[in-house]
Every structure is written in structure tokens, then in C-alpha cells.
Amino acid sequence: MGILGYPFVMADGIYPSEEDANDDPKIPRSLYIRWLQLASLFPAMKYSTTPWTYDSEVVKIAQNMSSLHRKYVTDEIDNMKKEILSGSPIIRPIWWNDPLDSEALKIEDEFLIGDDILVAPVLCEGVTSRKVYFPDGLWSFENGEKFIEGNTWIEIPIRSHDIPIFTKKNVVGSLTIF
């Protein structure tokens, strides 16, 4: 939708299937947490199911995701005002900066926030790793400890609370390349 000129898109709500709703009206807790992680990285957030439907830990996770939203999305929107006014989307496909990258053109489950934040969300329960494609550039893990040269695939280990977020770096000097 962002490419079509609607900059403030949000992740669609997550609801149990009709069969699951008859037994338990909540979606599985771990899947709900993954949805919170994804939803927090879109320009607008809305809870389809309230976090307190689960437990106090999920409420805390939701609060952390709101902070993450402010850190990445709100700040990026402030930095992108001119681009947004010119029609550039906030959430971009990873081929946005290099539409001739044939690998990037195939990716359906990663996105950019602006030009410099790469998100590779985990969309399934029980995932312990995922392959991430890094477009052109030098990318850093969120904690800034390791760097990855772009135009490559890397298998990233995933823990239950991890959100694969990477930032594009313009760094001069000594680096640890992953």
C-alpha cells in the first residue's frame, strides 16, 4: 500500500480461525508476540487483540514493542518528511534502492523502513533461524556488533524474542564482517 501512495500503513489484525475461536478465542501466545513484533515496525499500530488478554509478560512485550516503534519508525518518519511529501513510501520493498537487483526482486518477507533499516520479520511459530537477504550496502545487526556486506544471503539464528533488524552503515575504519 505504501507504494500506492498510502504512507501510514499498518499490519493487518491477527484473529483466530473459526475452528480455533470455538475452542479458545485467542490466537497462540507465541504467534501473537510475533505479530506484535511485526506490527510495531509499521508506520501505524493497532491492536486487533489486546495484550492483556494474555498475561502481564505479553503486556510488557507490547510496551517494549511500542518503544521499538518510537525508536525506529517514528524517528524515521521525522527524518523522511520531504520524501513522504514527495510520495516515497515509509515501508519499502528491499529492491527500492536497487530495482535491478534480481535477488531483491524475489523477496516477499523482508522490507525496509526508509533506506537504512532492514527488517526480516519472523512470521511463523517455533522458528529458530531464518535466511535473510541483504541488499547492496554494509549492514549491521541492531546491536552494532557485526557487519554484513550486502548482495548476500545469511542464515540468522532466531530466539523467541528476536526481531531481525539491521541498519545500513556508512562506516570508515576497522569492521568485523560476519
From TrEMBL:
<keyword id="KW-0378">Hydrolase</keyword>
<keyword id="KW-0326">Glycosidase</keyword>
<dbReference type="InterPro" id="IPR048395">
    <property type="entry name" value="Glyco_hydro_31_C"/>
</dbReference>
<dbReference type="InterPro" id="IPR013780">
    <property type="entry name" value="Glyco_hydro_b"/>
</dbReference>
<dbReference type="InterPro" id="IPR017853">
    <property type="entry name" value="GH"/>
</dbReference>
<dbReference type="GO" id="GO:0016798">
    <property type="term" value="F:hydrolase activity, acting on glycosyl bonds"/>
</dbReference>
<feature type="domain" description="Glycosyl hydrolase family 31 C-terminal">
    <location>
        <begin position="87"/>
        <end position="171"/>
    </location>
</feature>
<dbReference type="Pfam" id="PF21365">
    <property type="entry name" value="Glyco_hydro_31_3rd"/>
</dbReference>
<dbReference type="InterPro" id="IPR050985">
    <property type="entry name" value="Alpha-glycosidase_related"/>
</dbReference>
<protein>
    <recommendedName>
        <fullName>Glycosyl hydrolase family 31 C-terminal domain-containing protein</fullName>
    </recommendedName>
</protein>
